[in-house]
Amino acid sequence: MADPAPIRAAARGTVHDDESKQSIRMAADRLLVQPSVELGERKSRAGILIPATADVHRRLVWAEVIQVGPTVRNVEAGDHVLFAPDAGFEVEIRAEEYLILRERDVHAMASERATGQTGLYL
Q1: Which domain holds residue 25?
Q2: Where are the beta strands (DSSP E) in the chain?
Q3: pLDDT(107) > 80
Q4: Is residue 122 part of a domain?
Q5: pLDDT mean across residues, the chain
Q6: Which of 10, 14, 41, 44 could form a disulfide with 23 if both were Cys (CB 3.0 to 4.6 A apart)?
Q7: DSSP state, 46?
Q8: Separation CA 50–CA 41 (nearest Å)
Q9: How far apart are CA 13 and CA 29, in angstroms?
């Protein structure tokens, strides 16, 4: 598993891919997130293995925000966001799996910041 540290280090700026010498910036209200392991196989409380292909269309999942676009207002890199797994688009960067979400597809956030902002869209 490749180290996503170069991507994490470039929170609101650009991500530099050392192999191709191109930078990646998120556009508009897009979020680059790294999904948690619960998107794959998981176990129930009773110990039953639930495959990743099981029908969980109503189950929301958490992901860590790696990078945000310039018009994102309420989410910062390092936050964890709750979203529906079918809301995003899968992308592979340097052999790592990520998702691209829109800010409006986020249902909740977990952050260490003490202050919050409104979620209003005009």
Answers
A1: 5-37+56-110
A2: 15-17, 22-24, 30-35, 42-43, 49-50, 61-68, 80-83, 89-93, 96-102, 106-110
A3: yes
A4: no
A5: 77
A6: 14
A7: T
A8: 6
A9: 14
Domain count, the chain: 1
Question: Which CATH number fits the domain that encloses residue 14?
Answer: 2.30.33.40
The strand pair at 106-110 and 80-83 is best described as: antiparallel
Asked if residue 11 belongs to a domain, the reply is yes
Task: Give domain status of residue 47, yes or no.
Answer: no
pLDDT tens digits for range 34-76: 988 665 667 778 888 877 666 656 788 899 999 999 999 999 9
Distance CA 90, CA 53 (A): 16
Q: How far apart are CA 6 and CA 64, in angstroms?
A: 15
Residue 21 belongs to a domain: yes
